[in-house]
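Page 42, continued from yesterday. The earlier attempt failed because a stray header line got pasted into the input along with the sequence. Redoing it now with the clean sequence only.
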Amino acid sequence: MCGAENCARKGVIAIQIPRIKILSIFGTRPEAIKMAPLVKALAAEPGIESLICVTGQHQSMLKQVLDLFDLKADFTLDVMTPHQTLNSLTAALYSAIDPVLEQTRPDRVLVHGDTTSAMVASMAAFHRRIPVGHVEAGLRTGDIYSPWPEEMNRRCIDLSADLLFAPTGQSRDNLLGERLQGHCLVTGNTVIDALQLTAQRINKDAQLRGELDQQFPFLQTGRKLLLVTGHRRENFGEGFLDICKALRHLAQRTDIQIVYPVHLNPNVLGPVTEQLGDLLNVHLIKPLDYLAFVRLMQHAHVILTDSGGVQEEAPSLGKPVLVMRDVTERPEAVAAGTVRLVGTSPASIIAGVNALFDDVALWRRTSQAVNPYGDGKASQRIVDTLMGRPVDDFVVGQVQPTHAPLHTPLSEPRELLADFTS
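This time it went through. Structure tokens are written below.
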């Protein structure tokens, strides 16, 4: 082949191959974290024109993630209003996303996971006959009301997508069992890509570690950290009151300190502040940016959560997880032994936490399991698929985890807790 200059000199017209235009649509902080490494990989691919549309459910928290990964949205929608119902949100999303599709006319839309914004984006693209790729496809609980509305959202997206990027073999099997039309590939989960990038940044920079640790001056030497996150819609009301009852009881232990970055949703912030705000060893803090949250996970002894993403991240950090849900669409970590379902019953939560704090052998067994969710290469697998290059499925166990010590007491130097390699 001749270069462009030689071609021009010889009177030959140089033909530029058009790039694939891909529009990634997401709106919540968890989506942004999981899509960030993929969007960066798309932008680095010469054959792809990558565009970002953020729907803006978590505006301030979303900006933190975009800034962390040095990303800039091409379109920012403003769809949130006070006391919004799911139906009014869905209507607003359709009205806001469709003009973006009209303006950009992408070759493909990428969505992630199970949010209402992802479901609407996939259906809006489907109505325009724009191919859809679903990142984190195939997760199932078998109950359309748990989690609600996420389980139904995910099924709708999988029906409309022609590329199904399943994070695990179990997710792929779920999709194959439903006989969907889309092509399925096991990629691993992009959240592991994001976690590895973030952990590497923390681990390589002692000054950064020190700055992050300054955000937690309340942590006490000699007390093990129980990190709590809870925000899911199905736990609103009695569920959160029961969670708070359990935490009040656990706070009576003299060897425990509880840190809870509280979601800004009034259905979470209200009851949590009212029930736990007066306890000296329960620290209710504002939501953290992802960098600081990863650092706090590194310090944790046990994590108590209803978050899907934390269930996936914690095994990479060697952290036992208790999940405050009755069912999970992520059964792989339960099977691996790093995750246990405890629901929202105060008695079950208390028993689960006490067991991990009191039984050293149980804690060690729960901490030392292979991460079933990824090897840090999910984003590249997806990009290669979009470019038509051959791709091997992610298989658990082909890459050995490279955990550093699983827990460093706060009395010791706060050094690297996870040394990931790609």
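Notes: The first helix runs from residue 4 to 9.
Reminder to self: strip header lines before submitting.
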